[in-house]
Amino acid sequence: GQQVMQIPQYQHVQEGEDFTTYCNSSTTLSNIQWYKQRPGGHPVFLIQLVKSGEVKKQKRLTFQFGEAKKNSSLHITATQTTDVGTYFCAGPHNQGGKLIFGQGTELSVKP
Amino acid sequence: GAVVSQHPSRVICKSGTSVKIECRSLDFQATTMFWYRQFPKQSLMLMATSNEGSKATYEQGVEKDKFLINHASLTLSTLTVTSAHPEDSSFYICSARELFGNTIYFGEGSWLTVV
Q: Which residues of B touch A42 (CB under 8 A)?
């Protein structure tokens, strides 16, 4: 069935280092969404990418959607302790529009 | 921005009893709501899709008689865990999609502990 895979599962960085998580879909996606879940919290919507090759920035966060609309990445420049959490990518299922989530990348930042 | 409220945030119940969790969209109408289950350190597992005015669509392996979903209005969906067992203990999260939009908003989640 349709799958969304995300790597790495965990990433430990020193504060100030960069961080990247990668997302790959088994099928072409109409859009891809990114969420952040803080420890003990619920997923919070960060952004949605729709166009092939799209790049969007939110302060230190850069989101990319691949040309084939099957992969995406989230890059954080100069991480801060407030970036700690699990980052999920999600794409709509090709039937019904439900979201399929990647496994998530848990980011820990050492001060 | 859009807010989805989920209640209760934490609940403890005895084995064999039923628990109802509510999911409300506070400032928008949602024809579709989704119910997820999340185990610690794991991703969100979709349980069912709740459509206003019709029966929910359950994912494979999810018992519809055990996890009753009702979506009676455009702003409210409920999940009832019937005859709860300790293995049902988990974090349950709902999400809602705006009537005329693509963005999905998540509730705060409900921690269920069955003792």
A: 93, 106-109
